[in-house]
Amino acid sequence: MSAYIINGGNYLSGEVRIGGAKNSVLPIMAASLLNLSESILLDCPCISDVDISVEILKSLGCKVFRDGNTAVVDSSQINNFEIPPHLMNKMRSSFIFLGAMLGIGGKAVCGYPGGCELGARPIDMHLKAFKKLGVAINEGGGYISCDSSRFKACKVALDFPSVGATENIMLLACKQKGTTTIINAAREPEIVDLQSFLNSMGAKISGAGSNKIKIEGVASLNSVKKRIMPDRIVAATVMFAASAAGGNITLKNVNCSHIESIILLLQSCGADIYTHGDSLDIICSKRLRAADTLRTMPYPGFPTDAQSQAVAAFTTMEGTSIVKETIFENRFNQASELKKMGADITIGDRLAVIKGVKRLYGAHVYAPDLRGGAALVIAALGAKGTTVVDNIHYIDRGYESLDKMFSALGGDIQRKDFYE
Ligand code: UD1
Known about the structure:
- This protein has 420 residues and is α/β, with parallel strands linked by helices.
- The protein has 2 domains: 2-19 and 230-417, UDP-n-acetylglucosamine1-carboxyvinyl-transferase, Chain, CATH 3.65.10; 22-227, UDP-n-acetylglucosamine1-carboxyvinyl-transferase, Chain, CATH 3.65.10.
- The chain has 14 helices and 24 strands.
- The strands form 6 sheets. A 4-stranded mixed beta sheet has the order 22-23-1-24.
- The longest helix has 14 residues, at 232-245.
- The chain is elongated and about 60 Å long.
- It binds uridine-diphosphate-N-acetylglucosamine (UD1).
- The site of uridine-diphosphate-N-acetylglucosamine has 23 residues, from helix 1, helix 5 and helix 6.
């Protein structure tokens, strides 16, 4: 068990460099199976979801070397096409490996994916699309067995722009014969990053970033070197921390267009934000005003992955904020913990009404999931007194040394690892 001990109230100031994105590196690590060669990944974050991806790659016969934020995957010796349930259920994005294994051609077997408890998070859209593309699927005994030897390229329409389903289809189709088109594709920047990685290997994919992606199959792919795009959710987390605790922070290595919805929201609350190239200044020198209504939406809308952090910041803004969660049903798990710190939050059907209080106070709270955990850290940095944020293994899934990052900005935060 591990926890963060946070003494709140310090103004945050200084400069922080944002590292590579979790949601970009995970599908890219799966994609590194496809070239049967070497992939060098720069700005690969040291987070536990990456550790799980490395475990999966090794279980398939890949060699993986890591040195700080560089990872090298050598998939030339891949000799296994089965991922056991105990590895699959460690995270949701393990399911992306299915498309990559099938993309090499032939049979693949895996258990069902796990991940944070944000709701049902089914995989029906992935499987429906695979079937439409000629993949034979058998489910039973906790395993999904697939065979892509009768793959048939065609147009596939998604019922919802699912990020994972879009990525899985790209991985499945890029080395298969013919042209596959995804209609109603997800438009997230991480999908553009995946396209750029695959095209640098020699794939012929176009349209990522729009709702129509065209994948023209190629026979083989080459070795590749790629820098992972900056993590827009880590950038958002720092910005919400500045708004909760007060701060004057420069974020380096950000793609400002990826976080436009966050910038506009916080400006409407009264934060001063200036962008220049790949850096951004945020200055919050007084108490901010509540956001009127916020709805999470697929990109370019406000990201569900930043909703918990926004709720944490709203708890002390002046006035009432209303947040509507449209992507995942269980995404207000942090609210009961924030209430222990004095927040005034009422939860309805996928709706949170947050009445701003002057100040939160320290309490012993438990991270309910990855982003909910980050939200508690944000609340604690602005609170009066000491907060213990427990269960931080969730936070480790997607943030590299969150404690060191906020300490460098002047926050009083320490990690304690308690072993059972
Ligand atoms: C990805 C992100 C996650 C983010 C989410 C939404 C990664 C590794 N994870 O997750 O951080 O919160 O996008 O931006 O990139 N759905 C179905 N059936 C399916 C697939 C999805 O009903 O087959 C539903 C989900 O339950 C959810 C919605 O579609 O309600 C969006 O899910 P999706 O975009 O697929 O999210 P993930 O790819 O799992």
